[in-house]
Amino acid sequence: MSPNEIQQLEQLVHEKISELTAEISELEELTKPVPLDASIGRVSRMDAINNKSINEAALREKRKLITRLERTLERINEKDFGLCTKCGQAIPFGRLEYMPHTTRCVHCVA
Question: What's the predicted TM-score (pTM) here?
């Protein structure tokens, strides 16, 4: 992988982390407990609790993705970055642009 491509990926990862950080802040607000004394109906309260569960799942996934992206930043300058951990072949740059945290090529993921 060329130094220019590595620099592009590094910038992309930083941008994705910034976006995810903003999304996490929003989700943290949405996952606050539903107060019992809030004047909403029973069905609305059930909806709020259901939405809270969905938002909590999304929050967990975004936190996992940030962890993976941070690990990518740690590994990005290693000589084997961009190589599939299973077959050792180069992961196409387009795949790394789309999923910079990936460690396997398309053939080995399937």
Answer: 0.82
